[in-house]
Amino acid sequence: MTDASFRTNPDNFCYRHPDRQSFVLCQRCLRTICPECQTQLPVGVICPECRAEAQRGQQATVTRMPRRRRSVASSTPVVTYSLIAITSLFYLIGLIPGVGLEVRSSLVFFAPLAYTEPWRLLTVTLVHMSPWHIALNMLALWALGRSLEPLVGRWRFLALYLLSALGGSVLTALLAPGTVVAGASGAVWGLLGAMLIIGRHIGANVTSIAILLGLNLLITFLPGSNIAWQAHIGGGLVGALIGFVFARTRAVRQQRWQVLLLIAVGVGLLALLAVPLAIYR
């Protein structure tokens, strides 16, 4: 599918607001809906028409029950805010004397330990070494998540974040197995990579994103920066790959393929962890 055909395909835009692009579908009628039109239910989101139809059916069968207001999903990036809150909490725990050091050392990524303590592949995102470190990462997560999460949906955004973090850890294990890594930078770079690919695919102006990536890349390789560039590049590459998957599996009939491809990315990354064992043993 070309970028032009994507922009002219009405299935890629909210059926009630044709000028708003979205990747989220109503769970009942499978039409595209923007954040303003989403009603959050335990099983997903539905559009206003399906919500009205469900309410009419409820009123027809239950006459004297009091009306219950359903919470209407908005563009609030719940996953983004949750990740920021959880990461900030672990940073504060890491400041507790006598406990913080032990917590940080059990969560950072160090390739030789990751084979027996695999949670380190992802918990690396919860450890930050300074106030500036966590502030910059959480600011980037907040800025990117506000736009990207409503566009792709909550579970896709979470999968993107976690797989990007995994990609950063895996590339570090491949290229710098003796390096201790801390921080959510790999996951944040994944968000940048995905946003660049998705934005390019839907015809958005991605110049600012490309400039931001370039500046971050420059800072990453500055002498004395003490930055694990392997985690940044690994997260960015995986994020770009997942962004491509999201963009190319937009149709309803392709949703199963989208899930299978995301699983394949995760399995492939875990399989790559066997390479350092074969090389360095």
Any chance you could write out the topology, listing elements then pairs?
Elements: H1 3-8, E1 39-41, E2 44-46, H2 48-61, H3 78-93, H4 100-107, E3 109-110, H5 111-114, H6 120-123, H7 131-152, H8 154-175, E4 180-181, H9 185-201, H10 207-220, H11 229-248, H12 255-272, H13 274-280
Antiparallel strand pairs: 1-2, 3-4
> Total number of β-strand segments?
4
Under CATH, the topology of the largest domain can be stated as: Rhomboid-like fold
Shape: globular
Largest sheet: 2 strands, antiparallel
Helical proportion, percent range: 55-70%
Please identify which CATH superfamily of the largest domain we are dealing with: Rhomboid-like
CATH class of the largest domain: Mainly Alpha
Total number of helical segments?
Answer: 13
Structural class: mainly alpha
Beta content comes to: under 5%
The CATH architecture designation of the largest domain is Up-down Bundle
CA-to-CA gap between the ends? 45 Å
What is the count of structural domains?
2
Order of helices and strands: HEEHHHEHHHHEHHHHH
Radius of gyration: 21 Å
- Overall pLDDT metric: 84
- Give the low-pLDDT segments: 60-73
Describe the strand arrangement of the main beta sheet, using strand numbers.
1-2
Structural summary, described in words:
The structure is a single chain. The chain has 281 residues and is mostly helical. The chain has two domains: 3-61, Herpes Virus-1 (2-Layer Sandwich); 78-280, Rhomboid-like (Rhomboid-like fold), CATH 1.20.1540.10. Helices cover 61% and strands 4% of the residues. It has helices at residues 3-8, 48-61, 78-93, 100-107, 111-114, 120-123, 131-152, 154-175, 185-201, 207-220, 229-248, 255-272, 274-280; strands at residues 39-41, 44-46, 109-110, 180-181. Strands 1-2 form a two-stranded antiparallel sheet. The chain has a two-stranded antiparallel ribbon with strand order 3-4. A hairpin with a 2-residue loop joins strand 1 and strand 2 (44-46). Helix 3 (78-93) packs antiparallel against helix 7.
